[in-house]
Every structure is written in C-alpha cells, then in structure tokens.
Amino acid sequence: MTSKRLSVVQGVKSLIVMAAPAATVIGFDEDASKPEIIPAGGLILGEAGDPTEVDVTLSPPIWSYEHRIPVEVTMPPGMDDTALDAVLVPIGNGIAADPYLGGLVDYLTCTAPNITSEALTGTEAIRIAAFDIVAHYTSSNPLGG
Q: 59, 87, 119, 140 — which has fewest CB within 10 A?
C-alpha cells in the first residue's frame, strides 16, 4: 500500500514528465544527484520533500498537510532564459490545468522560481531555476493513510 505522501510525490513527478517531455526528470522518489552533463532538453531534479502538519481536526481525526516538493530545473551551457521558460511555463500550465492532481490533493500550486547562473570550468554558465511545488491535502492517518 502506498502512502498519501508518496502518492502525491509520484503524481507531481508524473505531471512534470508530461509537461516537459524533452527534459530528463530524476529524483522525487529516490535520492538522485546531478549528472555531470546536462541533457540538451534540460534536467529536472526533484526531491520528495516533507509534509508539514498544518492542522488536525478531531471527530473523526483528519490531518491537513502543506507538502513542499523542491524542484530544480537546469539548462545546459549556452541556453538562455527563453530555454528555461520553455520548461517552466508548461509545468506551471500543467499545475493550472489540474490543481487537484486528479483528485489526489485539495490544491496544488508552486512558488516563484529563484533563477541563478552557475559558472562551469571551461564552459559557459548553466541556468538554474529552483522552486517548490506545494501540495495541500488531508489524511486520516498521520503515518500515511
């Protein structure tokens, strides 16, 4: 049986894979490190994040969570913000098109990206956008029900 937490993370990963088919998507459900070479379509690295308990309603007990799922989009050297937006915008559109993640969450949104450049030795800088996808959901079992 899969926990609600893991189901939400897998749902977010599926949304990203569908929204950015040219990018390589890793992480989310396992520890992953960046490969040394960024694929031409970009690299999306996600973490499972941790749900934060927001509230508990009693009778019957229901736990409400705000689950922040960190996402990092990296474009290969020489790509500009237009290429980065070509990955970010479809992810945002995917969230807007299904903010309930097929009924899995109460609401799904994301934070604004923090965009930076990272210089690599002997090559042009890579562009990186880091943001969180935030899933709001409830569970009748704080251990994953």
A: 59
Residue 22 is encoded by which pair of tokens?
């040219």
Ramachandran angles phi, psi of 18, nearest 5°: -70, -35
* Per-residue pLDDT tens digits for 61-92: 999 999 999 999 999 888 888 999 999 999 99
Q: What angle do CA 102, 105, 108 make, to 5 degrees?
A: 90
Please name the amino acid found at residue 122.
Answer: G
Segment (H or E) for 117: strand 114-118
pLDDT beneath 70: ranges in the chain: 1, 30-32, 121-123, 144-145
For residue 45, list its beta bridge partners.
Answer: 26, 72
Buried-state track 62-72, b at ≥16 Cβ within 10 A, e below 16: ebbbebbbbbb
Q: Which domains does the chain have, with CATH numbers?
A: 4-139 (3.30.2000.10)
Rg (CA), the chain: 17
Q: Are 84 and 20 in contact (CB under 8 A)?
A: no
